[in-house]
Amino acid sequence: MSADPISSDDTTRCWCCGNTVDPDRMVRLGRHPEARLCLQCAHFAHQQALRIEDREKRGPTVFARDTLRNLRGEVMRRGLHQNKFIGGWLRRLGKHLP
Ligand SMILES: [Zn+2]
Fold first, then answer.
1. Cβ–Cβ under 8 Å, residues 10 and 34
2. Considering its fold, how many domains does the chain have in total?
3. How far does the centroid of ligand 1 lie from the alpha carbon of residue 59, in Å?
4. Residues 5 and 44 in one domain
């Protein structure tokens, strides 16, 4: 029997999406180690934090980044990232864009 008061089911469940994940592939939150996020939700939270910080920033680099993000969103909405001819290239490109 473990001394950990959290059940084994809770240690593998993401607090954001609820998916069951290998505990070694989860992010724990500083003072609340019982709160765990899967890597996908941790990346999402990171992107949300960057967007909140960026709301007050201005300048040409912010404009360029926002334009790229909008273009990326349009590609996703149209499903071009799943196109059999250019989808692979777009997905690789997307990993390097802000
Ligand atoms: Zn998750």
1. yes
2. 2
3. 33
4. yes
